[in-house]
Amino acid sequence: MRRVGILPTLVTAANGFCGLLAIYKTQDGKIHAAAFMIMLAMVFDVLDGLVARKAGITSRFGAYLDSLSDAVSFGVAPAFLVKVVVEASGRNAYGAKMLTGLTAIFTICALFRLARYNVEHTPSEGRRADGRAVATFAGMPTPGAAGVLVSLVYLYADPKHLFDFGFLCYVLPVLCPILGYLMVSRVPHIHVGTRFLRGRRDVAYLFVVVVVVVAAILFTEEVAAVAFTGYGLSGIVLAIRRRARGEPDEEVAAENVHEDLPGAL
Length: 265
Prior knowledge:
The chain is an all-alpha fold. The chain has one domain (6-255): Four Helix Bundle (Hemerythrin (Met), subunit A) (Up-down Bundle), CATH 1.20.120. The protein is 69% helix and 2% strand. The protein has helices at residues 6-27, 31-55, 60-89, 96-120, 142-157, 168-184, 192-197, 203-218, 220-245; strands spanning 136-138, 188-190. The chain has a two-stranded antiparallel ribbon. The longest helix has 30 residues, at 60-89.
């Protein structure tokens, strides 16, 4: 490999950089800023794939760099953030070792998830081998799992929140292994871009999008917490519904190892 796409690479690197800044901000006790940086990393994570596809320069280098950036931003940073927040709150009911273990499970599962994704997918993230966009992922994507933790921390750390969300300090550590399992499992989770943002829609749908955007601007913390938590629960609901109907997990086949790819692990 001698050449790489400059713009997609910079966007992907920005994802990892935001994750690193989140760790620094967490260490400095700037929890709200740290949560925001992880949210910003999610934006860059979406943009890098779009930029690469528009430029027609998707590659294995970009795919692996994306996974490394995701490991920092959505694997290490959220776990460290939860650990520091719970310890600083004075409401650590788990003890230092147990808290470390619970948050570490999240990071390790995120690494497993990213490694599996690299093995089972083409360089174009969220695509089948034939180039079509996937409708669901087998397992919860790492940005979604990180979003659940970070959005709740974001809500907890908001100085203007209307209610006392101190109870989240007891909930967040328990969520870490639960989200870790969802990442490494085959529990289906929808591809948000494919499901809600692709194709043509009627004006009524556009109205709903506008309402959601306005609500997100006015009540950022609350909307983020509801949206990410709802996304996490949606996978469980979808899996139960498919089991009840006897339907196969449609994307399991799409995640088999693609032997035709050079260098497939």
